[in-house]
Write a structure and sequence with these properties.
The protein is an alpha/beta fold and 350 residues long. It has one domain: TIM Barrel. The strands form two sheets. Strands 7-8-9-10-11-12-13 form a seven-stranded mixed sheet.
Length: 350
Amino acid sequence: MSLATRAEMAVYGVQVDAPVRRSKGAGPSDDGHLVVDGANATLPIVADSPYQVRDGAVFRNGLNLGLSVEPVRRPRFYDLTTADGVPYQQIALLHGKDVLATTVVQTCIRYDESTRCRFCSIEESLRAGATIAAKTPAQLAEVAEAAVRLDGVTQMVMTTGTTTGRDRGARNLVRSVRAVLAAVPGLPIQVQIEPPGDLSVLTELRDAGATSIGIHVESLDDAVRRKWMPGKSTVSLAEYEAAWDEAVRVFGRNRVSTYLLIGLGEDPDELVAGAGRLIERGVYPFVVPLRPMLGTLARADGVVAPEPALVRDITARVAALLADAEMRGADQGAGCAACGACSLLSAAGA
């Protein structure tokens, strides 16, 4: 599969019935979950896309592209309910074919309309009744054990809305990681947080058993950050750099990642140069095309995904830098870069 084709599929989406999908929640993209040529892929489900999936293959305007594609099947753990009466699906979701993902705290102090990230709808899934506000360590352990046993889950991602404490929610993840690993020893887990005011919590997360960590900045351009993340941009880039450096010291090189979003208006050359500086720090820049979700301010404003050519160009250049540094997303062990579904980097060899 050419990177150009993968970029078009990421932007234009595909026509397919995907049993596993996400329409709202934390982060910058929703989509249907598929397996494309054996790899996880999240792609927009678009009724008039030029790309169609049928009989396990992808067609473009009637031409078979020679790609094997299968929708991820609905996992069996979705049919279960916790001992305290909460459906498992409200506690954690399947991402790709083998990743369990959860937002441990589904509220965020930055979700007021004047401060919220314009690409995020973390509280919309809560308002829709698709999840619960806070998941307990016991609930997460129960669901993780079932997902591994019934559906072959091989890794887990734990993120959180930002809280008021100096740790910004990280210590909730410490307790959650410990509980899950007590129930499923050895399960690789990535945690995702804002830079904590107290960097010692990074060691606590590692000591609890977290495999890798995502500290997501989304853009390295302060003007872009103020426009797209008015609340989160009050955390300075200097704080991010300090957190990344300490995380690399604690977790190791290429066990730390950050999202960089394509489509926020950042200069492409500066985005790639910034990715290069992250790589020099030992941080994996997970470049992802913006695909505005339902319930986001971006979607309400009519923002659309970036052009496929731009996605292809930036991804190819960042992938080349990662290859030169011998950094692969799969080597993170757990998390977004290890899964690779939301980005084209794995298709580009990174």
